[in-house]
Write a structure and sequence with these properties.
By secondary structure, the protein is of the alpha/beta class. Among the domains are: about 120 residues, Rossmann fold (3-Layer(aba) Sandwich); about 140 residues, Luciferase, Domain 3 (Luciferase, domain 3, Roll), CATH 2.30.38.10. Helix content is about 30%, strand content about 25%. It is built from 15 helices and 24 strands. Strands 11-12-13-14-17 form a 5-stranded mixed sheet. α12 links the parallel β12 and β13. The longest helix is centred in the first third of the chain and has 17 residues. It is globular.
Length: about 500
């Protein structure tokens, strides 16, 4: 379906997310924008589009008055409405938002200090309780000796909205810096523009077929790409409600996620593969009668390898709750592309194919019989979406590989970010890949992920940097982990 069909009878501007929000304020001011399940179950805090606009405008006015337009500001919020208000407040004021999780008993203080210095943030937005607890320690550790300007947004009066001077965002203007996990080095801030966000939201909306009848729910952290773009920004783009809950509340009691889907008749929700495993393992059979998943039409699964056994076990356990296997939607994406790159076909079962495992370890793609000894099942991550180019390239020769070979996944799309903040060398290496055997000067993002195409479907096999080569044979960490787990039931993800 086209965007026009999905949005009918509305006609939003498709220029920037703030413009979209203001469009919904004009046309659907009293409709629910987002609700917060503060205990993981009840929507204690509800915000209409008009409510969100008023709070964002009040915060934006404060940022403008302090001369922060065009500068970077860290967002250090616990899960809740204050983050949402402040993120849009930054966009409204032309302030570059830098989301990060707030300090937790000094456990992640070094990461926050690293992000503050790397992003060259001049301000930190948070709530009063965190400001009082963390300001002195973070300021004292600043490498450049400059203290952040701390702003407790929960103390800003909504009446300040009347002082807001509307700011126009150009598609090339930086909207926010999305910091990567830093699992293979220090965190890097992906520079994402307003144009990047709009393009990726278009891709998500078309591939998910999210029309005017959808309701979302997310427990994912809003300082990571899947939680921020998928769980919050895309619902704001399409003008439909989203229910938000703390990641910790889900991890403590996974049934809260499914009960919330049931209670609020959610149609779209998802998470990484481990979330489905956790539900299968931790939710008691006796509690299944309380859950109705019949409205859950799209259960996206991404951010880590998608396992066939996970999909099968989840679908089998929750079939009695109305869950349908065709609701599963494996997809592939990353912070460097704003979020989504490839996705499946809605309302169709995931693509699962069997390949020769030994051949895959050698970088060769050979189909295998499902009942054979050499077979390895791999779940597809969907197909190329409109207006993008996805290639599989030999990372050494920088030439496209044949379809029967594994290579590095390269992406060219309007969703690809502008680079890594203040890191020109790494940006050139990662965001400006060029094919050695072509005169085409198209720049590609080198994802660092390995995979292959088979009959139009992308299969992701692992990370290039994680690859273990033993006597010329490739070993993928996730395959080793799965083999160990199967060897002893006591060895599994906690």
């Amino acid at each position: 379906m086209s965007l026009e069909q999905l949005f009918a009878p509305f006609d939003p501007p498709f220029t920037s997310l703030p413009c979209h929000l203001r469009y919904w304020v004009e046309h659907t001011p009293d409709e629910l924008a987002c609700a917060f399940l503060t205990d993981g179950e009840n929507d204690d805090i509800r915000m209409t589009f008009e409510d969100l606009d008023r709070r964002a405008s009040a915060i934006a006015a404060t940022l403008q008055q302090r001369g922060l337009t065009g500068k970077q500001a860290m967002l250090l919020f616990p899960p809740g409405p204050e983050f949402v208000e402040s993120f849009f407040g930054c966009m409204y004021a032309g302030v570059v938002a830098v989301p990060a999780y707030p300090p937790r008993r000094n456990r992640n203080k070094l990461r926050i200090e690293s992000i503050a210095d790397d992003s060259q943030s001049v301000a930190a937005l948070t709530v009063s309780s965190i400001l009082d607890r963390s300001r002195d320690s973070i300021d004292a550790a600043a490498e450049n000796g400059d203290k952040l300007e701390w702003i407790a947004t929960d103390t800003i009066d909504s009446a300040a909205a009347s002082e807001y001077a509307q700011h126009t965002n150009d598609p090339n203007d930086i909207a926010f810096l999305q910091y990567t996990s830093g699992s293979t080095g220090s965190p890097k801030g992906v520079v994402l523009s307003h144009g990047n966000i709009i393009d990726n939201c278009k891709k998500i909306t078309c591939s998910f077929e999210t029309g005017r009848d959808v309701t979302g729910l997310s427990w994912l952290p809003t300082y990571h790409d899947m939680g921020l773009v998928g769980g919050l920004l895309n619902p704001m783009f399409i003008g439909r409600p989203t229910y938000l809950m703390s990641p910790m509340l889900f991890l403590q009691k996974p049934i809260r996620w499914l009960k919330a889907i049931s209670r609020y008749k959610v149609t779209i929700s998802g998470g990484p593969n481990f979330a489905y495993d956790l539900c299968t393992k931790k939710i008691d059979e006796k509690d299944l009668d309380e859950i109705d998943l019949s409205t859950w039409g799209l259960a996206f699964n991404g951010a880590e390898p998608v396992r066939r056994r996970t999909l099968e076990k989840f679908a089998e356990k929750f079939a009695q709750c109305g869950f349908r296997p065709e609701a599963f939607y494996p997809c592939y994406g990353m912070a460097e592309t704003t979020l989504i790159v490839t996705g499946g076909v809605r309302a169709e079962k995931p693509v699962v194919r069997c390949f020769d495992g030994s051949a895959l370890d050698e970088g060769k793609v050979i189909a295998a019989a499902p009942d054979g000894d050499r077979g390895r099942f791999v779940v597809g991550s969907g197909q190329i979406l409109p207006n993008e180019d996805v290639l599989v390239v030999d990372p050494d020769t920088l030439t496209k590989v044949p379809h029967d070979r594994v290579g590095e996944i390269w992406i060219s799309s309007a969703s690809v970010g502008q680079g890594y903040w203040n890191k020109p060398d790494v940006t050139a290496e990662t965001f400006h890949g060029k094919l050695a055997d072509s005169d085409d000067q198209t720049s590609y993002l080198r994802s660092g992920d390995l995979g292959f195409f088979h009959r139009g479907e992308l299969f992701v096999t692992g990370r290039l940097k994680d690859l273990i080569i033993v006597r010329g044979v490739n070993r993928y960490p996730q395959d080793i982990e799965m083999t160990v787990e199967r060897a002893d039931r006591r060895l599994r993800n906690g």
